[in-house]
Amino acid sequence: MISPFARTLGKITPFAALLLAFTVSGPASAAECMNRGDLDSRFCDNDGDLVADTPADASKWLDPDTLIFSYTPVEDPSVYENVFTEFMDYMAKVTGKKVKWYGAQSYAAQVEAMRSGRLHVAGISTGPTVFGVNLAGYVPIAIMGKADGRFGYRLQLITHKSTDIKMVGDLKGRKIAHVTPSSNSGNQAPRALFKSLGVTPDKDYEVIYSGKHDNSIMGVANKDYDAAPVASSVLDRMHDKGVVNKDDLRVIWESKNFPTTSYGYVNNLHPALQTQVRHAFLTFDWKGSGLQKEFGKKSDRFIPITFKEHWIDIRTIQKTNGVTYSDESLKGLKVKKKKKKKKS
């Protein structure tokens, strides 16, 4: 599906794409690493944009015949393969490559796949984006939004209407579902923000990791959990699909807007491919596509973003929580849902 802008611009020639890529990539040709920040020791950030530079050594560039694409495992990965079909076809046309879907089962699996070179282009959830950037060389370039630049979602603290939980302070002594350690709205933001509201997770209430936002939402709807901090965007989609009824739930607190899932590529993708992938995201026409059907109420296109500017609040939250980016922290993303004890 080719947008009007794409038809006007035409397909990027390899030579032009290469020139554009080097323009975008900045001082990646520097022989020595003068700055690394929070990035893994394999990466360098000489241009100060907080993401890994493209390697100076061309022998380290990835130029695969097939690009592997993945969307954040917020819900059932197999469902979203169909949602992204038209976009993957368009990216294949722009890049001249085959594009294959990878249905990651966890945030950790997604980051590890990119870190090992098995994943090239991805949509990574808000909190895990920071882990992807620092541990896997992920370079976020776009986000779903509107023509006027609007984007984002809110952390919503939900409970079932049958409970007596009316404010954050009522969480004390309860069993609350968090999503995973790296999830922004499902764990990192609540840990940073609830303290100012007089409640400390793990101290004032028991944290039970559900694994995914939809697990937390369904758990509250089914009264398995007393409450849960979740992403408003996921709750909205589940309500629209008839999976849950928001009328059965109570939102007792919500945050300001956070950025949603970011989209980007691994830093050692061939510079020409980097430019072509960016072009594919920013010129894809959503009309009639699976993306419009799934996300059309809140977004109608991909809009450009930068990790340095748009993820500043997320980085601050993680810093407040003492998050570090290491092999050990990556292992910590692998959270198994606790089994519910059978009632005697």
Describe this structure in words.
Helix content is 35%, strand content 18%. With 344 residues, the chain is of the alpha/beta class. The protein folds into two domains: 4-149 and 260-310, Periplasmic binding protein-like II (D-Maltodextrin-Binding Protein, domain 2), CATH 3.40.190.10; 153-258, Periplasmic binding protein-like II (D-Maltodextrin-Binding Protein, domain 2, 3-Layer(aba) Sandwich). The strands form three sheets. A six-stranded mixed β-sheet has the order 2-1-3-10-4-11, with helices on both faces. β6 (175-178), α7 (184-193) and β7 (206-209) form a beta-alpha-beta unit. α2 crosses α10 and α4 crosses α10. The N and C termini lie far apart (56 Å). Mean pLDDT is 88; it is low at 1-30 and 336-344.
Q: In terms of topology, how is this protein built?
A:
Layout: H1 4-9, H2 14-25, E1 66-71, H3 77-83, H4 85-95, E2 98-101, H5 107-115, E3 121-124, H6 126-136, E4 138-145, E5 153-160, E6 175-178, H7 184-193, E7 206-209, H8 213-221, E8 227-231, H9 232-240, E9 249-258, E10 262-266, H10 271-283, H11 290-295, E11 301-304, H12 307-310, H13 312-320, H14 327-331
Helix pairs in contact: 2-10, 4-10, 5-6, 7-13
What's the Cα radius of gyration? 20 Å
CATH class of the largest domain: Alpha Beta
Strand order of the largest sheet: 2-1-3-10-4-11
Number of separate structural domains = 2
